[in-house]
Amino acid sequence: MPGPPTREDDAVETAASHSSQPPEEDTVSAPTLAFSANRHRESLREQSDKDLLFALRDHEDEAALDELIRRKTGPLIHLAARIVSDREEARDIVQMTFVRLWEHRDRFDERWSPNTWIYRICSNLSIDHLRSRRSKQQKTEPVRLHLRDLASAGHQRDLAELHSREVDGIFHELAAGLTEKQRAVFLLRELEELPSKEVAEIVGCQESTVRNHLFNARKLLRAALLERYPEYARHHEEDAR
Amino acid sequence: MTCPDWSRLTADPGTPVPAEAWAHAEACTRCRRAAVAAEPTLIFRHLPETTVTDDDIESMRVAVHAMRRERERSGAAQSRERVGVLPFGGSRAPVRWAALAAAAILAILLPIADLTPRVASPVVAEAETLPPWLDELLADQPLVDVGEAHNVTQLDTADLSLVVISVDDLEVASLDV
Hints:
The structure holds 2 protein chains of 2 kinds. Chain A is an all-alpha fold. Chain A has helices at residues 7-19, 38-45, 49-59, 62-84, 87-103, 114-133, 142-152, 164-175, 180-191, 196-203, 207-228, 234-240. The termini of chain A are far apart. Chain B is built from 7 helices and 4 strands, in the order αααααααββββ. Chain B has helices at residues 6-9, 19-27, 29-38, 54-83, 94-113, 122-128, 132-139; strands spanning 143-146, 150-156, 161-167, 174-176. The longest helix of chain B has 30 residues, at 54-83. At the A-B interface, helix 4, helix 5, helix 8, helix 9 and helix 11 of A face helix 3, helix 4, helix 7, strand 1 and strand 2 of B.
């Protein structure tokens, strides 16, 4: 794996460029320290996530961190926003995730999958954030009121037909009843579709515990859904009979 | 794929529905209804995707590096407070700091000492061809920023944070301590 550019490389480049210039222009040529970082950044785009983490760990390569930010900002904001139910807070969590990634770069072990390593930092920060925020959380029911309004206007739909924004609102409301780990496991396993083994590594528990968390999360969400939105879950009740 | 048996697929709440079965349900209205009827929590598969623009990524990059440097600076300051040493009194790399101090003093004194008119000042000469000891010292340090005509290098230790800015167009090489 090629390391980040060194000043020796620059010296060679500068010497080569000097040799093609007239002597009088030498006095105003680029300084010895100048070198092109663009080429290095472009080469990083072709490297795997693992190689980027190695570049962070072994060379303290800031351009590798930039490349990881480019690749992972979207998926991490997606995950954190679902865990903490707030995009702005998710953005702060992801920012801290990258800072931690840099500060703990020497701890990266090649036995870890890069995604597991990065998701673990992000989900732990999200869970911590959720815990610290729990006491301040207010219970609101905007989605239920919105759906009741639709129902009274004759626009009632069943669960399978709800729009994603409505589903989002329902999830945020009902997920408040889950523990932080249940919520993280449900999102990682059910929605991100990560394997149980990877979810266990991210959340820091046994695979059997992941299964228990998933079981309980689904049970609680289903019960809350049937209790709070019975008119939308009528097919389920009919089916159960 | 034919319509699967959703009652069977959702019978065990500890086992997720296979992705291909859900992909089929996305395209099959009858199946989607059967799936959600069998397991209402499957509606959460319809949570909206988060869109992230290039501007979001760039602002994230800037924010991450700013926070990282701030934490490194405050960490270095706390370490200095704990040990109780002066910035240039660190015991880890006395030779390095002595060399940097000499370079800073040189940068200040040379223009004062030489008052005769000249085309290029000695400092310019320093900037264009760095002394080997300084070049070697900087080679080990992380680059904070690199441009077509400038370099910013940061030298961090537990005792001191020093930023060296080399600008192609300037006639004076400055060492900001």
